[in-house]
Automatic annotation (TrEMBL):
GO molecular function, one term: diguanylate cyclase activity
GO cellular component: plasma membrane
Name of the protein: Hypothetical membrane protein
CDD domains according to UniProt: GGDEF
SUPFAM superfamilies: Nucleotide cyclase
Species: Rhodococcus erythropolis (strain PR4 / NBRC 100887)
Segments traversing the membrane: 30-50, 62-85, 116-134, 140-160, 172-193
Length: 364
């Protein structure tokens, strides 16, 4: 029982995974195929509803046929958006909520309770989508809504003029099991085993990004146009004489030094900054800042990174590279980052050659 409770708690604490899982798919070349599949599924649902218009037990009356047509249009529109535009978190949430409403509306248009229950099975596909792309809170909201719609869809089997309570309970239970068990189990498995989409990007000692995680995320941060009011800042930090600390005091003290350094970096970076440990004692920060704050930020960095009172004392050589000019035609984000990193790394080594414990900056 205790193990089950732990699994449930880990599942409940699972963060939203839209960005991490989208990057996972993109890095492996699967994102386009995934978009095509989700869009194709939406279109297929629209075609199924279109065929229902020609059934004797399909939508009856002007109102329900209008609702059916509206859901068909929404399905086609969702398919086109998935195919033509890059997905965003806002669109993804809209897709989930819109799909739930559309499935409920589609079920309501069927004149037969068995047909309504079959329509409710489609809720399972939305639950599966949430399991991989979003968080348990959204999943619970989806499941509560889907369960209510399922019970209402089978209501006449339980209490209608030709009620068959045994059949109604059995059919509702089967549909409920389908729409609840599959998505929840899938998301719990992700929580227990961990996802390569989220763990392969993290340095296990500090919890910062690793080199791979930094390279995956830097495009998002550096993509918007660069101006003096929104410049790109790359900072390279290298601890001075870290090898001596490891050799003299041991690796446990060395690990503690690395952890303190990571905490100090968080003192002067914003939540939007990308902070990574890219080597044994080397860190990189990528951030968007106004040029007007660079001088003040340089002082904040120098103060925050001062480890003179540590035991053993520590210091760092720090290089900063700032770019205020927009990208040239044909110049990629990767090329801009590589140039900024090279410049920041160069001035960092200049600081180290002159005794360390310094901050050097260069405008690119």
């Amino acid at each position: 029982m205790k193990g089950f409770v732990e699994v449930v708690m880990r599942w409940w604490q699972l963060p939203d995974q839209f960005h991490s899982f989208s990057r996972y798919l993109e890095d492996r070349g699967f994102l386009t195929s995934c978009r095509a599949l989700v869009g194709g599924t939406a279109l297929w649902m629209g075609l199924v509803l279109l065929s229902a218009r020609f059934s004797d037990v399909g939508p009856q009356g002007t109102f329900w046929r209008a609702v059916n047509l509206m859901v068909i249009v929404l399905c086609v529109g969702a398919a086109l958006i998935w195919w033509l535009f890059p997905p965003t978190p806002r669109w993804s949430y809209t897709f989930v909520v819109g799909s739930d409403v559309a499935i409920a509306a589609a079920a309501a248009t069927d004149s037969e309770p068995m047909g309504r229950l079959i329509a409710c099975v489609v809720f399972a596909s939305i639950g599966g989508y949430i399991a991989f792309f979003h968080n348990p809170k959204l999943q619970v909201g989806h499941l509560v809504f889907a369960s209510i719609v399922t019970v209402l869809s089978g209501w006449t089997l339980l209490f209608g003029p030709a009620a068959d309570v045994g059949l109604g309970l059995a059919k509702i239970a089967v549909v409920m099991a389908t729409i609840i068990v599959i998505p929840v189990v899938s998301q719990m498995v992700l929580a227990v085993l961990g996802s390569d989409a989220t763990t392969s990007d993290i340095d296990p000692l500090t919890g910062l990004l690793n080199r791979r995680g930094l390279s995956r995320r830097v495009k998002d941060l550096m993509g918007p146009p660069v101006t003096e009011a929104d410049a790109v800042l790359v900072v390279v930090i290298d601890l001075d004489r870290f090898k001596t600390i490891n050799d003299v005091y041991g690796h446990d003290v060395g690990d503690s030094t690395i952890l303190r350094t990571a905490l100090r970096i968080r003192l002067w970076t914003t939540k939007a900054a990308l902070t990574a440990r890219v080597g044994g004692d080397e860190f990189v920060v990528v951030e968007r800042v106004p040029v007007s704050v660079i001088a003040r930020l340089e002082g904040q960095i120098r103060s925050a990174m001062d480890g003179a009172t540590d035991d053993p004392p520590t210091s760092a050589s720090i290089g900063m590279a700032v770019r205020t000019a927009p990208r040239h035609p044909g110049e990629s984000v990767d090329e801009v980052f590589a140039e900024l990193f090279r410049v920041a790394d160069t001035v960092m080594y200049e600081a180290k050659r002159e005794g360390g414990n310094q901050v050097r900056a260069s405008l690119v």
